[in-house]
Design a protein that fits this description.
Blueprint: H1 11-62, E1 66-70, E2 76-81, E3 96-99, E4 102-108, E5 114-116, E6 126-127, E7 133-140, H2 143-151, E8 161-162, E9 173-175, E10 183-189, E11 195-200, E12 207-212
Length: 233
């Protein structure tokens, strides 16, 4: 019976295979890394879009305006009830109002009437994921927006377009009980210069995301914590 001869790998062959694997990994890693960062930007945009939709539903449910604010060149933002100090105590159940006792939330009680809970409201600001940040936010302030801002003593932006400098808090983006909102564009970017814009159409309050051309990574500031963005109250 003839025995088959077993061939072993030479040192040269082992080294050659290792070199090939290293080269393949070097080629694949940037692509995989880019996909991860791109996915993070997309997920942050989708999450924000969903939260703005939820705020629209909340405004319609409670009959109370909701507000969005964010830190420019930072990743913190807030979405919550807009308190102008003129809330009515008989607001719909679930609305948040400001009265002599502070900030309270309305609640439905026996008999079908609306009462006030004594619980104080608050919460930490939300944050975008990883290196994703708010690169810019523009809000088109119309007469309705300007009236709401004046109720809180906040001056409407000059020219009717609300913007903010790096590290500053954006102008309030308001979402109304009739389903409409402030017309706005929210631009999100990652550290590699990829950008996505979330556009809100004021008449319908609905949003759509669009991809913008990438910019040089050097023009994107590092994500800064910035000032804390508190809720709408």
């Amino acid at each position: 019976m003839k025995l088959s001869r077993r061939h072993a790998f030479t040192l040269f062959e082992v080294i050659l295979v290792l070199i090939i694997l290293v080269v393949m990994a070097a080629i694949a890693f940037p692509t995989l890394d880019s996909m991860i960062y791109s996915r993070r930007l997309l997920q942050s945009t989708e999450r924000l879009q969903n939260e703005l939709h939820e705020a629209r539903v909340e405004a319609m449910r409670t009959g109370q305006v909701q507000v969005f604010r964010a830190t420019i060149n930072g990743n913190s933002y807030s979405i919550g009830p807009w308190l102008s100090g003129n809330e009515d105590s008989d607001a719909s159940a679930g609305a948040t109002v400001m009265n002599a006792g502070g900030i309270v939330k309305t609640d439905r009680i026996a008999g079908g009437t609306v009462g006030l809970s004594s619980a104080q409201l608050g919460g930490d600001p939300k944050q975008l994921a990883g290196d994703v940040q708010f690169l810019g936010i523009e809000t088109l302030v119309d007469a309705r927006n300007a009236m709401e801002l004046q109720k809180t003593g906040e001056a409407p932006p000059i020219g009717g377009v609300g913007t903010a400098v790096s590290g500053g808090i954006s102008s309030p983006l308001l979402i109304y009980p009739d389903g409409s909102s402030t017309t706005a564009q929210i631009v999100l970017a990652d550290s590699r210069g990829r950008r996505l814009a979330l556009q809100l159409r004021g008449v319908t309050g609905k949003s759509a995301s669009i991809r913008l051309p990438a910019v040089g990574a050097s023009s994107i500031p590092q994500v800064a914590p910035g000032p804390a963005v508190q809720g709408g109250y």
